[in-house]
Amino acid sequence: MSYTIIEVCNGCGACKRLCPANAISGTQKSLHVIDGSLCIECGACGRVCPKQAVKDSLGRICTAVKKSEWEKPVFDHKKCNSCVICIDACPTGCLAMSGAMGKDKHGKPYMKDDKACIGCGFCAAECPVDAITMAKPAAKAA
Amino acid sequence: MGKGYMGKVLFVDLSKGDFKEETIPDEVYEKYLSGTGLAAYLLYNRIPAGADALGPENIFGLMSGLLTGTGSLFTGRWMAVGKSPLTGGWGDANCGGQFSPAIKRAGYDGILFTGISEKPVYLYIGEGKMELRDASGLWGKDAVETEEMLLEECGHDAKVACIGPAGEKLSLIAGICNDKGRIAARSGLGAVMGSKKLKAVVLDGCRRIPVADRDEMKNLSKICSKWVGMQPPFVPGNMTGFIGAFMRILPTQMAQDGMLYKVMLRKWGTVSMNQVSAEMGDSPIKNWSGSNKDFGMSKSKYVNPDVYTDCEMVKYHCYSCPLGCGGICKMTGKFSETHKPEYESVLALGGLCMNEDSDSIFYMNELLNRAGMDTISAGGTAAFAIECYERGILTKDETDGLELKWGNTAAIVSLIEKMIKREGIGDLLADGSKVASQKIGKGSERYAIHAGGQELAMHDGRGDPGFGLHYSVDPTPGRHTIGAWLYYEMFQLWKKVKSLPAVKPLYHKDAKYKADEEKAIWSNACSKFMNVLNGSGVCMFGAFIGIKRTPTFDWLNAATGWNKSPEDYMEIGERIQTLKQQFNIKHGIEPKSFKANDRSLGIPPLLEGANKGRTVEIDKLMKDYWTAFGWDPETGKPKGETLAKLGIE
Fold first, then answer.
1. CB within 8 Å: A105 and B327
2. ipTM value of the model?
3. pLDDT average, residue stretch A123-139
4. Cβ contact B208–A88 (<8 Å)
5. Is the pTM of this model over 0.90?
6. Which residue ranges in chain B fall short of pLDDT 70?
């Protein structure tokens, strides 16, 4: 299964720049193409496309969302068992483990590079103990 | 629907520079799982009989586990596989850290290498690229330097497995390193990688790992995580020796529940066992000739577990591990930090050589990790050399002037440095004690404590005969990560596999030393189960807390969508073990030749200490083990009917 790009694509290249799997190819102002064998269905292309030119793996047109409203992971460190699965699940490498936290020498995950986060939610999906929820930054602040 | 595995492996021909993907049919996973099971299936037919383990015909692989990346816990082990140059038979070694999921994120369950490259290369997979790149500039660098240089070149999100100078110099006790000094150390597979001029593998993929029922995986993982999270306050480290002494003195023993060990692992890591083991006769002392009488608490206190946690800056977790037994320790001198030494390393470089200098153990630990040399075999070989020197078999001229006496820290450190560099006496010892003793002669063979060429781990069969048995019968001999009576108790397999006998909650210690029929059932179960674990990528420490708390069988069903019973999985383990034994037969190994060194089995028995007077009934135990597997009780060779029953062609 893979995302696809339809002909309304204006070749702006926003999706190609964002794709963490290097699955999108195409030159400026021409129709871009997603390599289905590389696509990891993170949905970043659909969220960033200004022309609604991306279909998800079920064939639905994706809607663009402002980057400032992309959902980001919120960690519940009480539930977290420091298993590092979220760090590995992240396709952009935006998460990292902290050092020792006071007397507790077991690190915890945190957002290392907020700008790199594409809001894919893979960290939350793969967290084995549901210690991560995805929330819009505003909700996160609240 | 996903099934937990990626469904394909990559073959890289280093002679031609070719890449070839191979799709693996579902039936193969159902018969062999992934990891070492799949590797045994792939390599058995493809490595020709008698192939030189350091030649182009050997196939070397890096495998991930079936459960790795599926939302299960304790499933971050990756495995190196190939024909072992150390034993001449099946070789595998496994390691934790963050490398195992990277193999699957690159799109494969395993990456296998054939042929030999003309010049040093490394494999890079990532960013939609797959290429062999020049590694001439990395050749000669240690494992930490190599990883740092590769991350600088390929990006810091990449994962690296590499060899150090020991693998490059074809030391038969070399392993493969990841995460800056963790090491898949056993079986000498670092030398195989070195023989292929393959310096490193760098993986930077982000593929999704498909799972049949992720919700069920999480339900199971939450229960497991809760058990692991239970952490009562515990005694100070300097009290652990007294626990060991108490266990030694008691005539009875309670069946061990791995939850106790879990608590110690979480607090200290494997070094929690340093003093306990030395006191209770689990840890071999003075090249297996000594006991707790020689290395009592006044000496072992220098390796009490608090010594290690006091300088531990941070604990770290391998991929998908809720426990976190690893740590990074600060140190002074040439290196500023090191992975917290493991129990095996501390005792091999400590009590086995009568070395009580903790600082030197930190130093040698880091040195060996960087060199990519097995600390168990290095320590075992150093202890062998010391005994040879003390007995006059090796002279000062032959040791390059080193006073190789028990506990001479400076000489032991120099010896290890020479082994890494293959310099002088180090060149003689760099292939392990068996090869060295064959070159030295003069009766030194008696003091080379190995099984099938591989140095025994730091668990004494005279204390738990299960260790002596598994050292002697496993297709990869000399390893402590297969089975023991203790492991059977902790795995608690009878709670899922109804045909297996439960262990009595309290028993007289004498029962451990009787080679009755039940022991064959226990040891067979351990071997089968360990193959399931190594096919799935499960860490043995996770399995120690019991099959109901670390629900490997249930995770396997939820990840794959299969509906197999625990008995079905045990049969898969049986199939893998039998195939590995058959691999050895194909390569001309007589299973009897893997019997561990006599001294390690109490022939003759020790005259004092925790294991005084004990002899392992090894011949009966081996025969019973082979019989229970359907292998010939006299030769250890799988019978035709057994191969047919298991569908091994």
1. yes
2. 0.95
3. 92
4. no
5. yes
6. none
| Side chain identity, residue A72 | K
Is residue B156 less than 8 Å (CB to CB) from chain A?
yes
**CB B332: neighbour CB atoms within 10 A?**
10
**Cα Rg, chain B, nearest whole Å:** 23
> CA nearest B127: which of A46, A92, A95?
A92
Give yes or no for residue A140 having a pLDDT over 70. no
Tens digits of residue pLDDT in B550-589? 999 999 999 999 999 999 999 999 999 999 999 999 999 9
Residue B315 to residue A23, Cβ atoms within 8 A: no
> Is the minimum CB–CB distance between A64 and chain B shorter than 8 Å?
no
Residue A51 CB-density burial (10 A; 0-12 exposed, 13-18 middle, 19+ buried): middle
CB contact under 8 A, B324 and A82: yes
Question: How far apart are the two ends of chain B, measured CA to CA in Å?
Answer: 30
E runs forming strands in B263-368: 312-316, 326-330, 337-339
Could you say which DSSP state residue B595 is in?
Answer: P
Distance, in Å, from the CA atom of A128 to the CA atom of A80, rounded to the nearest integer, reads: 9
Residues 87-116 of A with CB under 8 A from B: 88, 91, 93, 97, 99-100, 105-107
Question: So what's the pLDDT on residue B450?
Answer: 98
Query: Would you say B267 and B236 are in contact if contact means Cβ atoms under 8 Å apart?
Result: no
Nearest to B444 by CA among B429, B461, B426: B429
Establish how many alpha carbons lie within 13 A of residue B366's alpha carbon, considering only the half-sphere containing its beta carbon: 20
Helix (H, G, I), strand (E, B), or coil: what is residue B300? helix
CA distance B638 to chain A (A): 40
- On whether any CB of chain B is under 8 Å from the CB of A21, the answer is yes
| Pairs of CB atoms within 8 A across A/B | 83
Q: DSSP assignment, residue B212?
A: S
Strand, helix or coil at A104? strand
Q: Residue A139: its pLDDT value, please?
A: 54
Does the pLDDT value for residue A43 go beyond 70?
Answer: yes
Say whether B515 sits in a helix, a strand or coil. Answer: coil
The C-alpha atoms of residue B349 and residue B511 are separated, in whole angstroms, by 32
Which residue in the block uniquely carries the two structure tokens 């945190």?
A: A110
What does the pLDDT read at residue A142? 44
Nearest residue of chain B to residue A86 (CA atoms): B320
List chain B residues with CB under 8 Å of A44: none
CA distances B263 to B240, B325, B569, B646, Å, are 13, 10, 28, 39
B322 interaction partners in chain A (CB closer than 8 Å): 81-83
A101: helix, coil or strand?
strand
Across the interface, of A40, A99, A100, the residue whose CB is closest to B208 is: A40
Cα gap B641→B645, rounded to integer Å: 6
Q: Is the peptide bond before B604 cis (omega within 30 degrees of 0)?
A: yes
Reported in sequence order, the residue ranges of B46-141 that DSSP labels E, i.e. its strands, are: 60-63, 78-83, 90-95, 110-114, 121-126, 129-134
Length of chain A: 142
User: Chain A residue closest to B69 (CA)?
Assistant: A85
* Residues of chain B with C-beta less than 8 angstroms from the C-beta of A107: 314-317
Residue percentage of chain A with pLDDT more than 90: 90
Contact A107 B316 (CB under 8 A): yes
Query: Cα–Cα distance between B1 and A38 in angstroms, integer?
Result: 18
Alpha helices in B281-374 (DSSP H): 297-300, 305-309, 343-349, 358-371
Put simply, the answer to whether A128 touches B221 (Cβ < 8 Å) is yes
Token representation of residue B72: 């299960």
